[in-house]
């Protein structure tokens, strides 16, 4: 059986679903296929379940701080299976939401792995679709450590489905996922060790942010092994033992690698039609996301540009509007706001101080760190209610990077509670080209952490 489509999408994650819906709304006949669950990594093994786990882990700090405000708390018992079951129920609901959105838009949904059969055809579960245009939106998958015993290491696809909470965990990697899960597991009360090959966490972020996050994580009790790599892992007397490059050993009930993701470009027929691949087997595309084969496009993690859900959504919109609507504006990759839901949380948009100094002849830096009002009633260093978790005042870092020549604010960085929510709002101002004078003229809401961004008056010295 053969069906005819104007536009056929392989992969029903964020970018694929957005492209399919927009194309259908513009009058195209659209089909989409997915071999797993609708919603892709973000919904099923990424942003959504991760943030739910982060929320769960934050309650320990809230419980421990309640006594400072006059409450007489005892730490409630945590039940991992309840969290996982509730998370699974919410993900199933979102899968259904995605299905309804597609069907309501008039998109035909096919269950199965899509494979490019020719420049204008896709095969799914034995059925062949003729397509004027094909979009590949197959996302990425977790990288596995290339060491002996790697089969003993969990990936981010596994971590959301643990049947029980381990008593100890070793995490490998220093990026978003590793830092976020270090906070989750540590604040759920289990011993957490993090191994990272670099001397600081969160490569690519502002250096002040990196230092601040690492220092606060270590102070909270996450055991950091920086400048180290995993050499091998083995079962030893019922415990999984990892050996690092300096021959030191780490024992933990669970070992979890969050060392990056790679594009899902293999086994979908790209080589059959001659689609060009680049480093890490990412699909090479032009500014309109067209591949080396004119009828085939690609967006999202499979092109390995910026692996963020809002970016994939925007890329999918560009493709659909370019093909079926008015010529869409090109995708912009500057001033993309992002957050790391570590503990403490990170929010950032624009240039780091390092990048600004490399690009601009004159840079001014405004920075402050402080204890937010909510934490001021707490002792500086205490133990948690149950005595198992070291609890410290949650400090905040705020930083603005300003172009000295134009006075434009080109970078905004925050570490602390609510960082993502605050920086999302500031991203609008920075995208609009707001100057430091505009920030200075803006009244703050008192008492809030956010007001600090409009209260920074004195630039720091270059060597401070």
Structure characterization notes:
This protein starts with a strand and ends in a 23-residue tail after the last helix. The chain has 464 residues and is α/β, with parallel strands linked by helices. The strands form six sheets. Strands 1, 2, 3, 4, 5, 6 and 16 form a seven-stranded mixed sheet that branches. It has a five-stranded antiparallel sheet with strand order 17-18-23-22-19, with helices on both faces. Strands 10-9-8-14 form a four-stranded parallel sheet, covered by helices on one side. Helix 1 runs parallel beside helix 9 (309-324). Helix content is 30%, strand content 26%. The protein contains twelve helices and 23 strands. It is globular and about 70 Å long. It folds into three domains: 2-141 and 262-324, FAD/NAD(P)-binding domain (3-Layer(bba) Sandwich), CATH 3.50.50.60; 150-259, FAD/NAD(P)-binding domain (3-Layer(bba) Sandwich), CATH 3.50.50.60; 338-454, 2-Layer Sandwich (Enolase-like, domain 1), CATH 3.30.390.
Q: Which labels suit this protein?
A:
FAD/NAD(P)-binding domain, 26% strand, globular, 30% helix, 3 domains, alpha/beta, 7-stranded mixed β-sheet, 23 strands, 5-stranded antiparallel β-sheet, single chain, Enolase-like, domain 1, 464 residues
């Amino acid at each position: 059986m053969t069906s005819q489509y104007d536009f056929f999408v392989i992969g029903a994650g964020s970018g694929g679903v957005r492209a399919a819906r927009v194309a259908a709304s513009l009058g195209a006949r659209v089909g989409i296929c997915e071999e797993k669950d609708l919603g892709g990594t973000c919904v099923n093994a990424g942003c959504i379940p991760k943030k739910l786990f982060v929320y769960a882990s934050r309650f320990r700090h809230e419980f421990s701080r309640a006594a400072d405000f006059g409450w007489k708390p005892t730490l409630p018992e945590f039940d991992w299976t309840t969290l996982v079951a509730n998370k699974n129920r919410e993900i199933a609901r979102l899968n259904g939401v995605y299905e309804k959105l597609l069907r309501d838009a008039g998109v035909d949904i096919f269950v199965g792995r899509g494979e490019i059969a020719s420049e204008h055809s896709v095969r799914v579960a034995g059925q062949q679709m003729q397509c004027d245009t094909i979009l590949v939106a197959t996302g990425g998958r977790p990288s596995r450590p290339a060491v002996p015993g790697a089969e003993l290491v969990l990936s981010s696809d596994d971590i959301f489905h643990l049947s029980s909470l381990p008593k100890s965990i070793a995490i490998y990697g220093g990026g978003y996922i590793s830092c976020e899960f270090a906070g989750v597991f540590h604040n759920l009360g289990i011993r957490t060790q993090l191994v990272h090959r670099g001397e600081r966490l969160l490569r690519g972020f502002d250096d002040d942010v990196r230092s601040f996050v690492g220092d606060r994580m270590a102070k909270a009790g996450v055991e950091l092994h920086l400048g180290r790599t995993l050499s091998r892992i083995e079962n030893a007397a019922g415990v999984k033992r990892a050996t690092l490059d300096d021959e030191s050993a780490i024992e933990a009930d669970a070992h979890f690698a969050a060392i990056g993701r790679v594009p899902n470009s293999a086994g979908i027929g790209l080589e059959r039609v001659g689609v060009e691949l680049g480093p890490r087997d990412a699909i090479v595309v032009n500014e309109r996301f067209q591949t080396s084969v004119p009828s085939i496009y690609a967006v999202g993690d499979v092109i390995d540009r910026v692996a963020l859900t809002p970016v994939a959504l925007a890329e999918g919109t560009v493709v659909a509007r370019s093909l079926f609507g008015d010529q869409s504006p090109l995708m912009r990759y500057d001033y993309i706001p992002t957050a790391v839901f570590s503990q403490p949380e990170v929010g950032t948009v624009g240039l780091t101080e390092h990048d600004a100094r490399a690009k601009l002849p004159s840079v001014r830096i405004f920075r402050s760190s402080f204890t937010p009002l909510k934490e001021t009633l707490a002792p500086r260093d205490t133990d948690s209610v149950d005595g198992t978790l070291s609890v410290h005042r949650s400090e905040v870092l705020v930083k603005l990077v300003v172009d000295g020549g134009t006075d434009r604010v080109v970078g905004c960085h925050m570490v602390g509670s609510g960082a993502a929510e605050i920086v999302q709002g500031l991203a609008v101002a920075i995208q609009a080209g707001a100057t430091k004078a505009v920030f200075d003229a803006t009244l703050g809401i008192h008492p809030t952490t956010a007001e600090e961004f409009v209260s920074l008056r004195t630039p720091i010295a270059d060597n401070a």
